[in-house]
Amino acid sequence: MEKCTEGIWIWSEVFVCKADGEDVAVLLMDTQGAWDAKMSKEQSATVFGLTTLLASRLVYNVSKQIQQDKIENLLYFTDFARAALRAQKLSAQPDGKDQPFQTLEFLVRDWPHFQENCSLSDARSMMKSHLDQYFDPKKSEDTKSVKALGSLFQDIDVWCLPHPSLKIERDSWNGDLVVIEKEFWRFIDGYMERIFSPEQLQAKENLGNFITVDSFGTVLREFIAAFSDAAPQAKTFSEAMEASTSLLARDVAMKKVKQILAEQAGSLPQAVSEE
Questions:
Q1: What is the rounded CA–CA span in Å between residue 234 and residue 245?
Q2: Which residues form the domain of 162?
Q3: Residue 109 — φ and ψ, nearest 5°?
Q4: CA angle, corner 191, sides to 49 and 199, nearest 5?
Q5: Is residue 2 assigned to a domain?
Q6: Which CATH number covers residue 236?
Q7: How far, in Å, CA of 159 to CA of 210, rounded?
């Protein structure tokens, strides 16, 4: 089955879900496989950097297990991200959080270690143990990666999926989902329920400011312009963060002004009809 995504694709339909008791608009985004043979290291960092700026949950799709080389690829991005944040003197967010980005999640496909009829709770324990091998400072030998990624993301998580079916590997497979194993559907259903639950779902924020429906288009254009060069630099990343912060702060201020004006207008005497 050939890979088809090039660059960044966004699903045309917006899904409205609940998060912290409020409605949030959810966009599903798919990107070209970062650090594959078709893109340079710089181009991969561009895709990853732009995606990180736009996503509240960044899902890093890996095969069979988390591998050290995949983590090292992430470190290439974190190097210029940290430099950009230092340039803007943004070591911490205005709301007191130390990490500027929200959730990084490893989605491990074709995970071969689940026992037959394994419960999701037992499977979840296995997933966490796998993640701890790389991100628990007491267990990981690569403390540099743990510290670097932990300084950028508020949460680092994992979910593992069994192989869908060996039949999809055949050239004759026509995309018919009837061949997919029930066990795969059980795990993918559990994953969807978890990440779209009100407890897990997060509105996207940049440096303490939430991206709103009104500001999303402008912020997106600013980010794309900042990353238009094939080789991202700390300066361009810094400019994107600065532009985003200014735009979102302006959006918050405008809403506050409109609210105050509406309240004041409501307190004024109303005109009375002569009739």
A1: 16
A2: 8-266
A3: -90, 155
A4: 80
A5: no
A6: 3.40.50.300
A7: 26
